[in-house]
Structures are given as structure tokens and as C-alpha cells.
Amino acid sequence: MDEPVDSKTVDPFSVDRFPKQKTFNLGDVVTDAAKILTEEERAKLEEQNKRLVTPFKALKLEQEARKHWDLFYKRNENRFFKDRHWTTREFSELLAGEDPAAAASSSPLAKPENVEKISVEKKLLEIGCGVGNLIFPLIEDGHRDYFIYACDLSPRAVELVRQHNLYDERYMKAFACDITTEEVFQTLPEASLDIVTLIFVLSAIHPEKFQSTVANIYRLLKPGGVVLFRDYGLYDMAQLRFKPGHKIAENFYMRQDGTRSYYFAEEEVSKLFSQAGFTVIVNNYIHRRTVNPKENIDVPRTFVQGKFRKPEQA
């Protein structure tokens, strides 16, 4: 497996850095600089190398990826992930084309019996939909200006989406597929989508399949279509917490439940999408601290967030 592109390691909290996009949470630092590690943090990363996941175990994890995610949703159902009401704040593209009057007059909880299939021109695909923590908040907030497709590797997750009280095939369709393969094209034709969301999903895929995944997304999008991306960034708190025996490869780890997680360098993400033919609109690290003095919690998080467009002339 190719090692990720080295990232800059200047101080991400330096006021001399000019952010590439707005911050949306008080205290966020938006920058193209990776976190600078302390000596203690460097020691933690070195400690991880003392015992790696064996090649046999790594292959088994890849072969059983679907099974591990199915078991995850069997255990947790819809109780694990919080609803993502923040997506329209940070990705305004999800609001594009909305009719304010229609949104104001619609009740997202209602399912009128005598209404024909909703007519929408634009189409959105959420990859790795889980139990619908992105799509259902969109509907609750009145954003029905896209026909929503939602796919996940886990059939159990897709079934939970279909059981949701807001699931309505007049304006959405959930289906199971492995986005790293050609399977998605059994449901969606090429050049059929306006927006694809890829939020905390690519990190769960084996790095050797990143290119095929992004290439499939490129094929699915119409010319001018956009990918909205967020995922775990290099040296995120979760990466530093892994103990020996969990590291599969550089920046790629196994969790206790058999699911996996990769931690991205910003430059690596830009290169991945650029090589697939996308234009980078914006791409950067978001350094965020979750602070709760009452609970004595101060958790530093690092994400990579970007937007990538398929050229109009593609």
C-alpha cells in the first residue's frame, strides 16, 4: 500500500495561517497545517508500531467488512450516531434550489395519503448512509429539493433506514451496495447525480480502494456535480488513542468491533480527488476542541473537510 503524502507540520493554531473556508463553530481553526505532535504523542504513535495487525488478520477484516458493519448496527441500531443537523450549515450546497415558500408550508413529519410522487429535478446520493443521520435531518428541516438516494455496505443499516417513519419512496430510495465496486451502477446510471456526500465514510474503506471509490463517484456525478467530504484527519485524538495490536498500516487501524478507520492528510485528499479528475473547490483541516468544564472534558478533534467538483466539460 502506498504511504500517504506527507503533510505540513507547522503550528495549526498560528494566527499567521489564512483559513481556506469559514469556521462554523466557536473555537474552530481551519488551516492547511497538520497538528504538531508533542513528544508524548509521538511516543504513542511509535508504541503502536510494536505490534501490528497480522497480514492474515488484515485480510480477514477486509473480507468480513460487511459482516462487521452489520453486527455494529445489530448492536447499536439507531442509538450510536447523532443526527447531523450541522450539514446544511457547513455545506450550503445542500440548500441549493430550495423553494422557501414550499419549505415553510410543508410538514416534514406528515405523509399525505393523496399526494402524487414528489417531482424533483436534482438528485443527491449519500454514501455510507448508516441509519439516516444525514438524510432524515434534511427532511425534518424541510429540505426536499433533491431526490435522495442513500446507500450503505450494511444491509441491516439500510433496513433501519427503510423502517424510519420519515422514509418515503416518493422522494428517496435506500439500497445496499459496496461503493468500491461496480455494484452501485446496478441502481444508478452514470452522470445522474448533482451531489454526493462522503461524510466519515472513506476512512472505513481499505486505502487500496480509495481510488476506485472516488473514480466511481466521478462516473456517477453529472458534469458540474459536487462531492461534499468530511472525514478523520491526521493525528486526530482517536488515532492517538489506539494501543499496540490495532494498527493495520500507516494511518489505518482496526477498532475493537472489527470496523476500521483511516486518518487523512489534507494533501492526500486533494491529490486523491484531483487524480480522479475533480477540481478542488476547498479542502482543509478543521481543528476543533470539544470542551465541557463541568465534566472536565477537553477533547481535541481533527477533521479534513472539502468540496470537489466534476468539471463542466467532463
Automatic annotation (TrEMBL):
Claim: Methyltransferase is one of the keywords in the record:
yes
Q: List the GO molecular function terms.
A: RNA methyltransferase activity; S-adenosylmethionine-dependent methyltransferase activity
List the EC numbers from the record: 2.1.1.-
**InterPro entries, per database record:** Methyltransf_12, METTL2/6/8-like, SAM-dependent_MTases_sf
Q: Which residues cross the membrane?
A: none
Instruction: State the UniProt keywords alphabetically.
Output: Methyltransferase, Transferase
According to its UniProt record, what is one Pfam family this protein matches? Answer: Methyltransf_12
Class of this enzyme: transferase
Query: Per the UniProt entry, what are the Gene Ontology biological process annotations, in alphabetical order?
Result: methylation
Please verify whether the record's keywords include Repressor. no
Domain (Methyltransferase type): residue spans on this chain: 125-227
What family classification does the UniProt entry report for this protein?
A: Belongs to the methyltransferase superfamily. METL family.
The protein's name in its UniProt record: tRNA N(3)-methylcytidine methyltransferase
